[in-house]
Amino acid sequence: MVSRSVLITGSSGMLGRNLVARFAADGWSVTGLDITPGQPPSGVREITADIRDTEAVEHATRGADLVVHCAAALPSYPAEEIRSIVVGGTRTLLNAARRLEVPRTVYISSTAVYGLPDVVPTPETYPYAPVDPYSRAKAEAEAEALRFRERGMLLPVLRPKTFVGPGRMGLFSMLFEWAEEGRNFPVLGRGDVRIQMLAIDDLVDAVVLAANAPAAAANDTFNVAAAEFGTLREDFQAVLDEAGHGKRIVSVPAGPALAALKLLEKAKLSPVYDRLLHKLRADSYVSTDHIRDVLGFVPRHSNRDAILATYRWWREQPRGTRAAKSGRTSRDPWRQGALGLAKVLF
């Protein structure tokens, strides 16, 4: 039996690495494309190139039976770079896939396209309502993908919530560091908002379903998220309990804290971006009925499962690898800036 061939863009990122491993284990011939060299499993072809490089992308795409487009920017990037990578890179990739008649392309979008929705659980029919450079770019790129679908491409679109699991750093590394040091951890207000996340293993399962489902079912747009999730206070407290120091989640007045964090962000003294600040003040969860009913997707992990698995992985890492980096990928611990100094208060 001849193996099928898949191209995974953003293959050195957290999601990309997990997809490379899964498709390789499932017997696919895997090519990864990323601007950053990775450490792919044996037998995986790796191409180091920018997703905006038309020639390199076309070379990587040639002969693929499937493309999974994960390459993107983070909200912490400069606005111009976010749009160039997310919108320009997606357009480059989809043009290549269409020219080369790739049978199926799975596009990894984001629930950020909803902005700060006033309907929860948020369904896929909720309109685009971006509020910052990242969510605007993701909405524009997804709209571009839908135009390619309208022109005849088989193009499943997945909108995941924030995904968590071994390999994830970013702002989670701050929670883990404070927990390990035996500190309390602050939340805005009472911390009783429900913030839905997603285990990386479940997102990989959803991508595999979208890659293999019958065309009529797959050629649609799907939210992907955990089915079980508590309040922010409950899910973060699980980490403090796991650390074993008897520390607690501590409420801080939302108004003053929000104002201070906005000032710190503008002064580039905090990695906490504006949309995240607002998201943490209200319930944020989406409906997953559509992907369950159409693709049969049932997540295996709760928020708490995913966060604790990430924390346990983090504790096993050498201390040197936990040091703050540039924040260029979700696998980098972000610099805490002025928030690191606030630890003494907790």
Automatic annotation (TrEMBL):
GO MF: aldehyde dehydrogenase (NAD+) activity
Domain (NAD-dependent epimerase/dehydratase): residue spans on this chain: 6-225
InterPro entries: Epimerase_deHydtase, NAD(P)-bd_dom_sf, NAD(P)-dependent_oxidoreduct
Gene Ontology cellular component list: cytoplasm
Any one Pfam family match given in the protein's UniProt record, by short name: Epimerase
Protein name: Putative NAD-dependent epimerase/dehydratase
Source species: Streptomyces viridochromogenes Tue57
